């Protein structure tokens, strides 16, 4: 707590989930789909970083956060190569979120959380045996919103949108891998069907270069979940279209079983 105040300051030091948007900070147990959105999985693999983050709640359900972190996530392909350069290894993050009750109801209050977050830093040079990827800007801004019990009890809607500039992580260094302007979004609409059942629909998109053609990837899908509390079974089906991949269209079926101890 702050001196002479009931305000509780939360500080995280070490390795922790990224505070960019809403999806990266969510645990696997809470997510509706086994896989994260395309842009988050591509640009922030591992979803965790090392550094320091401080969160301070203020009036009206508002929380302000600031952090100093390693510029690359823990499983970024250029991080796993153990060869990023020593310069430009730190990035700054900031976020402001607000939680608000829109309507009180016997079947469940309609609540909304919305926020704006960002990251500013560099992607270090990445050296290989025969080539070096250059140091580039790494900059993101994200806007997210999360509704609970939106149209009726048990109906949830989550969405986030990203714009940024970065190099798409690549395990094979090359001098011709500059930073590009990029964007992405993700939307999930779900409904609880009683105490044990849930159905969710999603659509997410990632454009890896806004100034070039054939750089868009879309993924649509549905997920059915059964269970609550300490266990959950999820069956999902994803339909993907990637203009930049050798296999342009593909489908993925996933069965995930989770136990919480």
Oligomerization: single chain
Helical residue percent band:
under 10%
Rg computed from alpha carbons, rounded to a whole number of angstroms: 20 Å
β-strand percent reads over 45%
Net shape = globular
Number of helices: 2
Instruction: Flag low-confidence runs.
Output: none
Strand order of the largest sheet: 1-2-3-4-5-8-9-10-11-12-13-14
User: How many beta-strand runs?
Assistant: 14
Describe this structure in words.
The protein has two helices and 14 strands, in the order βαββαβββββββββββ. The chain is mainly beta and 261 residues long. The protein is globular, with a radius of gyration of 20 Å. The mean pLDDT is 89.
Give a quick precis of the structure.
The chain is mainly beta and 261 residues long. It has two helices and 14 strands.
Q: Which secondary structure elements does this structure contain, and how are they paired or packed?
A:
Layout: E1 10-17, H1 38-43, E2 48-57, E3 62-70, H2 77-80, E4 90-103, E5 110-123, E6 126-127, E7 132-133, E8 136-148, E9 155-166, E10 180-193, E11 197-207, E12 216-228, E13 231-242, E14 249-259
Antiparallel strand pairs: 1-2, 2-3, 3-4, 4-5, 5-8, 6-7, 8-9, 9-10, 10-11, 11-12, 12-13, 13-14
Features:
14 strands; 4% helix; 261 residues; globular; two-stranded antiparallel sheet; mainly beta; 2 helices
């Amino acid at each position: 707590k702050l001196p002479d105040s009931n305000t509780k300051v939360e500080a995280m030091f070490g390795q922790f989930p990224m505070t960019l948007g809403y999806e990266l900070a969510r645990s696997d147990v809470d997510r509706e789909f086994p896989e994260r959105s395309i842009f988050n999985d591509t640009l922030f693999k591992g979803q965790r970083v090392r550094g320091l983050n401080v969160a301070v709640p203020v009036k009206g359900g508002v929380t302000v956060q600031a952090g100093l972190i390693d510029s690359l996530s823990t499983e970024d392909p250029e991080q796993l190569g153990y060869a990023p350069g020593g310069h430009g290894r730190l990035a700054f993050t900031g976020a402001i979120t607000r939680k608000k009750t829109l309507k009180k109801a016997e079947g469940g209050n309609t609540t909304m959380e919305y926020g704006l977050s960002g990251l500013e830093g560099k992607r270090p040079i990445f050296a290989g045996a025969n080539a070096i990827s250059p140091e580039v800007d790494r900059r993101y801004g994200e806007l997210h919103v999360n509704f609970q019990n939106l149209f009726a009890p048990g109906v949830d809607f989550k969405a986030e949108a990203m714009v940024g500039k970065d190099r798409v992580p690549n395990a094979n260094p090359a001098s011709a891998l500059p930073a590009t302007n990029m964007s992405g979004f993700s939307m999930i609409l779900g409904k609880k069907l009683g105490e044990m059942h849930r159905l969710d629909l999603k659509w997410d998109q990632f454009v890896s270069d806004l100034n070039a053609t054939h750089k868009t990837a879309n993924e649509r899908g549905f997920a059915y979940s059964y269970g609550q509390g300490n266990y959950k079974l999820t069956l999902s089906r994803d339909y993907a279209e990637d203009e930049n991949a050798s296999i342009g269209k593909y489908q993925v079926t996933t069965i995930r079983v989770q136990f919480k101890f």
